[in-house]
Every structure is written in structure tokens, then in C-alpha cells.
Amino acid sequence: MKKNIKLLSIVLLIGGMFSFGLVTEPNHAVKNNQDFKWEKLGSRKVNMVADHDEILVTAYKGFFTKIKFKVLDAPILLRNVKVIFGNGEFRSVKVNKKFTAGMESRVIDLPENKRIIKKIVMNYTAVAKHKGKATFVVWGRH
Q1: For 14-29, what is each residue's pLDDT tens digit?
Q2: Which residues constitute the domain of residue 111?
Q3: Can you give the CATH number for the domain in which 107 is found?
Q4: Residue 40, exposed/middle/buried by CB under 10 A (0-12, 13-18, 19+)?
């Protein structure tokens, strides 16, 4: 009898331990969804001699509602960014701001909510007295 009670206690204890691992959040809970993550669309080592560069973004990356960018490695004076969409339309964003290495832009909303991005063209000026190339990285959010 004591063996049966011990065995039953052990079974209930183990079953209770597994049941806690199976508890899930209700359906209305906030999920860590792909919609809330930023996806890297591309990057470019900018030629400090030229005044513009572009990043090609292919359609397989999907539709985007917002973009932002970050400058790495060296400072640049970013004049403007032109986002060209899959249907040929575009959005130009005047920036006219010096970005130091590691600095990130504000979030830029894309018109009509969800758009396929074909390419991003940036116009910039190299910051005097700095050697090396800056890296321009673009991020998009679905």
C-alpha cells in the first residue's frame, strides 16, 4: 500500500511539473511577431570621393511600411535619401545632417502603408579630415 502511495505521489509530482511547461499565453497576448522586427535591406561602403551611392533591394524581401538607416565606421554629411519603389514611384527625404559613426536616423514612414522597395539612393558629402570609408546600412520594417 505504501509503495502504491509513493508511486502515485511521484507520478502526480512529475505530471504537475510537465503541466507547468505546457501552460501557454492566451491568444490575445502580444506575440513576438515578424511584423515588429527590423530587417536589414542592405548596406554599402560609400565612396568618399563620389557624392552618391545606391543599395538595390529585391522584391523577394517583401513589402515594407517603414525604413531607417545607420552610418558606421566614418562620419558623412547626408544630404538626402531617395527610396524608389517597385512600381517606379519614389519618395525623396531631405536629411541635411552630419552622421557620426554609429548614428541612426529617425524612422521614415513609407506612403500607402506597404511598399516594395526597388532601391535606395543616398546623396552625401564626405566629412573633411577623416580617413576611411563609411558604411551606410538600411533597415526596413514590414
Answers
A1: 554 444 444 333 333 3
A2: 37-141
A3: 2.60.120.1380
A4: exposed
